[in-house]
Amino acid sequence: MTWIDRAEARFGHLAIPNLLRIVAGFNALVFILYKVNPGLLDNLRLVPRAVLAGEVWRLVTYIFIPQVGSPIADWFFALLYIWYLWWLGDGLESAMGSFKVNVFYLLGMLGTTVSAFFFGADFATFMLNSSLFFAFARFYPEMTIYFMAVLPVKVKWLAWIYGALLFFGLVGSSVSYLFAVVAALGNLIIFFGREIYDEARQRREVSTRRQRFEADLGGATDDALHRCEVCQRTEREEPHLEFRVAKDGHEYCVEHLPKAAPNPEPQH
What structural domains and CATH numbers belong to the chain? Predict the structure, then answer.
């Protein structure tokens, strides 16, 4: 039994069902209030100096800020973002259960906070939502979604592309930024790190065994069952060739089989 299973057995009754639906609902509410009062978001963002000054609500409220990108068509992008959270949450709840989703999300929030306070990273909910998507891809790699509502793409390929973009974003970046990313994605490492490592080790062992087997099989191809003593041809080179064992104990193809000596004529 893993640590999370033991924790669930003891504290599972404290889990909040449909947590990400609740988060999505608050995102919708905040977006509506933001349209009424655009300055509202400044009071909700995760700003370490403001938290240290006593505005501790920022440790939580930043997760309720919808990521809408450009203000053009922001209603559409807000709706898409809220649906995205709802969809991820339902999938993860089905795969992990409410308690594990709660712990996973809280660890992601903790990692985001550590990144902001110790490494100065302003990830907002970007890395937190990224960790949700990577976890979703672990459970539903073969699911097909329609990118931009047109192009069918499997979730695992989107995850690989997303991961590659994150990786290339680290190239040339500072060490502090690297640590910030690791901290922000710490929930993924805690939940799936050992599992990913074991799978990689197993794939390496299987590959090694396959290569060894193929090498042994390749070596065995030189050991023919039949070989002509004269021409050295084998049944592997010419499957239809017939072989015979002569009186001298050697094996020959029918073409080079020694002919029996004629019997001497009786003397009169």
Answer: 3-203 (1.20.1540), 226-259 (no CATH)
